[in-house]
């Protein structure tokens, strides 16, 4: 099982956002952490506050690099997704 740990400024609001979209909560620790139930695949999503995740990772919570992450998979493009969503280089 792979855990995708994401950072949020407001765990409670983010939890509500994902629960409203159908994710089930597996574990929750007040406003500090929420782990969602794993679906049929090998990924288990979770949300932390920035300082807590930085502590777990052993890095500064201030960070020095990009605060963005893009996860891509090989499942192909969704029907109706804009062509710009396909970021792979196409042959000329």
Which architecture name of the domain at 2-62 does CATH use?
A: 2-Layer Sandwich
User: How would you write the strand order of the largest sheet?
Assistant: 1-4-3-2
Backbone structural class = alpha+beta
What fraction of the residues are assigned to beta strands by DSSP? 25-35%
- Mean pLDDT over all positions: 75
Molecular shape: globular
Helix content: 10-25%
Largest sheet, if any? 4 strands, mixed
Poorly predicted tracts of residues: 84-90
How far apart the termini lie comes to 39 Å
- DSSP strand count: 4
Count of separate DSSP helical elements: 2
Organism: Streptosporangium brasiliense
InterPro entries: Glyas_Bleomycin-R_OHBP_Dase
Protein name: Glyoxalase/fosfomycin resistance/dioxygenase domain-containing protein
Q: Please, could you describe this protein's structure?
A:
This protein has 92 residues and is of the alpha+beta class. It has a domain at 2-62: Signal recognition particle alu RNA binding heterodimer, srp9/1, CATH 3.30.720. It is built from 2 helices and 4 strands. The protein has a 4-stranded mixed sheet. The longest helix is centred in the first third of the chain and has 10 residues, at 11-20. The chain is globular, with a radius of gyration of 16 Å. This is Glyoxalase/fosfomycin resistance/dioxygenase domain-containing protein. InterPro entries: Glyas_Bleomycin-R_OHBP_Dase.
């Amino acid at each position: 099982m792979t855990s995708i740990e994401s950072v949020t400024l407001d765990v409670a609001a983010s939890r509500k956002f994902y629960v409203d979209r159908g994710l089930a909560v597996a574990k929750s620790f007040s406003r500090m952490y929420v782990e969602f139930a794993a679906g049929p695949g090998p990924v288990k999503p979770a949300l932390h506050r920035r300082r807590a995740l930085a502590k777990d990772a052993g890095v500064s919570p201030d960070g020095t690099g990009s605060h963005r992450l893009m996860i891509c998979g090989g499942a192909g493009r969704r029907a109706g997704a804009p062509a710009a969503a396909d970021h792979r280089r196409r042959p000329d």
